[in-house]
Amino acid sequence: MKSAFSLLVLFCFLQVRAGHPEQEHNKTENSACPIRLKPNGQCGDNEECPYQVTLPPLTLQLPKQFKMLERVMKDLQNLKEDLSNLKRSCLECKQQADESQPRNTDEAPTAEDETGNDLKEIQSKLKKMSISLKNTKNQINILQSSSQEMNEKKVEEIVNNVLQNKLENCPHDCPFMSALKDIRVFYTDCSDRYSNQEVKNGIYLVTPDRHNSSFNASCDMESFGGGWTVIQRRVNGDVSFNRTWKEYKDGFGDLRGDFWLGNDKIHLLTKAKDMVLRIEMEDLDGVREYAKYAQFYVSNEYLKYRLSVSSYSGTAGDSLHFSKHYNHDQKFFSTPDKDNDMYPSGNCGSYYSSGWWFDACMASNLNGIYYNKKYKGVRNGIFWGTWHNISDGQPNGYKQAFKSVIMMIRPKNFNP
Ligand SMILES: [Ca+2]
């Protein structure tokens, strides 16, 4: 728009300029140009002279796109303002960012800083201590489980291996051989022997308590998984079981045949480990049954070798807990010469020719007389009150007898 206007002014100006000031009179010829130009004041030749221009009102018809231009200009103005706002915001942002920059380490720390640092240090120490504690706990757990595994059996195995190695590499006169005489490897019972690869039936030395003497025991290594220490056997009847308190205390008979191991030894064996009791029986008709007790313990002599037995299973019936009135559990041991029974009017041991944990008097008596045939009279033979036909009326009042009885024990946790 400006350029069009300038052109028009220039055009008229040139027209006026083309005429001489003296031709002013000829106004009509020049009246077509609405712009009037005339000197303003006295002007001589070749002098600078002021001129006055008179411009008429001017109306220009602009193309309609100019409206758009106006809007664009407005938008442009708005954009400029936005840009300016953005710039301002940016500056503020930068200022804030500068302020939040970490302080120069040369600056002296404030009390707040020091407290924060102390807290951080304590937190770090606590974290380290917690990790250390966790590690220690893990190590304790590992040690605990290791020590549980390192039971006596394993220690003995290790000792045996060391001994074996030493023996193989040692001449007979070396100092180790003389020291060897003082080293003893202990086996608590037949199950320990079995674990040491001694799997044949036989007589083995066992040491249930190291403060007491070792003794020989008959080991059944072949029946029911092996590892059984036999505490009583009746198979041929050549050994009398009508014995004194002292004899039952020490044991009697032949370990390869009929015998009673001895109450002191049975006490030590059942004290050393939790024991299972297994009783095998065969009657004269060839019927074989068994009774098993998952818990079996015999107290010491001071407590009169009291019996503690429970958790029956088997086929022969639970004659040790026959009834309320005939219950051998928790009863003292009695012999013909020592009455610890529950029968007030007499001595059960004497009456039945046996040493046993009598009640008043009995529903079982495995130490009764060994009869090799059915018998009459007092029921003083080997007896098991829950035997399948024991209460049946026998012809002519004969009583059932047993061909064999074996009582044996094994640790509860034994794994064949
Ligand atoms: Ca009595």
TrEMBL record:
One GO cellular component term noted in the UniProt record for this chain: extracellular space
Superkingdom: Eukaryota
InterPro entries per record: Fibrinogen-like_C, Fibrinogen_a/b/g_C_1, Fibrinogen_a/b/g_C_dom, Fibrinogen_C-term_domain, Fibrinogen_CS
Swiss-Prot/TrEMBL keywords: Disulfide bond, Signal
Fibrinogen C-terminal domain span: 181-413
Gene3D superfamilies xrefs: Gamma Fibrinogen, chain A, domain 1
Short name of one Pfam family: Fibrinogen_C
Signal peptide start and end residues: 1-18
Annotated region (Disordered), positions in chain: 95-118
Basic and acidic residues biased stretches: 95-106
Protein name listed in UniProt: Fibrinogen-like 2a
Gene that produces this protein: FGL2
